[in-house]
Queue: 2 jobs
Job 1
Amino acid sequence: MFSKTLVLLGALGLVSAQSFTNQNMTQFSPSNKTLACGQTHSDTEYVVALQATIWSGGSLCNKTINISNGKGLSTNATVVDEFFTGNAEDLELAPSLFRFLTGPGVDVPNVDSFLADWSWVN
Ligand SMILES: *[C@@H]1O[C@H](CO)[C@@H](O)[C@H](O)[C@H]1NC(C)=O
Ligand SMILES: *[C@@H]1O[C@H](CO)[C@@H](O)[C@H](O)[C@H]1NC(C)=O
Ligand SMILES: *[C@@H]1O[C@H](CO)[C@@H](O)[C@H](O)[C@H]1NC(C)=O
Ligand SMILES: *[C@@H]1O[C@H](CO)[C@@H](O)[C@H](O)[C@H]1NC(C)=O
Ligand SMILES: *[C@@H]1O[C@H](CO)[C@@H](O)[C@H](O)[C@H]1NC(C)=O
């Protein structure tokens, strides 16, 4: 049973214990378009895009991840889109989520990226 579960998770490329450290977070605007997962979302939702390498043909759509900025701020976010630049475990964050995780006192217009840790929640 246990090994079958591991095999299944391995086949899905989704091991729930998997987490990623110091990955590059940038912004994207989800608003006013149908995203790769087939839904629309606003800039104020806590939604993310995955890099093409780990996109897995859309099978990770609607999965929840936990993103931590390494400075005491973390939140759940939902996978809704795909992007093609950067590295496999980088994320693109919707504007309100990016604003939240940069933390108070940071002048966001001057920040194009920051490093964060993330993991699969479900
Ligand atoms: C993160 O992405 C931004 C925007 O593409 C880039 O300018 C920056 O060099 C990247 N940082 C790292 C550490 O990869
Ligand atoms: C998205 O569309 C709404 C309604 O048409 C508009 O008010 C808003 O400015 C648009 N947002 C962006 C980022 O283009
Ligand atoms: C993602 O969730 C939305 C809203 O609950 C749902 O309509 C959509 O079918 C889901 N997409 C996938 C690929 O599961
Ligand atoms: C995200 O994960 C970190 C590290 O395990 C944990 O401390 C934090 O409470 C989690 N955040 C949420 C919103 O679940
Ligand atoms: C994060 O998502 C997990 C799984 O859905 C849930 O159990 C947990 O309560 C969520 N944390 C927050 C702070 O919403």
Job 2
Amino acid sequence: MIEPEHKLAPNFTFGELATTSHTSLIPSLRAEASKEPIIGRLRMLAELLQGVRGLIGAPMRVTSGYRSVALNRAIGGSSRRSQHMTGSAADFVCPKGPPLDEVFAVIVQAMRDGSLPYPVGQVINERSGGAHWIHISLANREGDPGGQVMTYDGRRYRRVERIQQPHPALQPVPVQRDDD
Ligand SMILES: [Zn+2]
């Protein structure tokens, strides 16, 4: 089992990307996240987040990273196909950084420029019940080039645009298919 303090990227620890407010689920969550292929994707996800951090120059707080089946069930309402369940997505806020709408715009521009370490699968500017956060994922779904820019208003997702990213999509990581 990987130690929570283990750094996946300079400013992102394993514990940050594998945690939940459902504290009883943390040990099993971290045990699962310590194994391939999840840990491999969490490392790439941490590098992607590090790339965003470098561009905005402010700390980010991950509010949700890897979700196990048990955690996804505990949360309820979250899609079974969520990229959180493959260790490919994170939700974050920037309490001490620029407004999230600005952060979102920076990410979208970086996708155009190809200035993040990996191509983005989806970036979603999400608002629900007074909360505001950004969801970002790796473009590692089989056959999916990613580049999706979306918004969520607590009720529905809207696609704003699809960006052709300069770098090729990641080689698909062998995983159990996360949809059927
Ligand atoms: Zn998310």
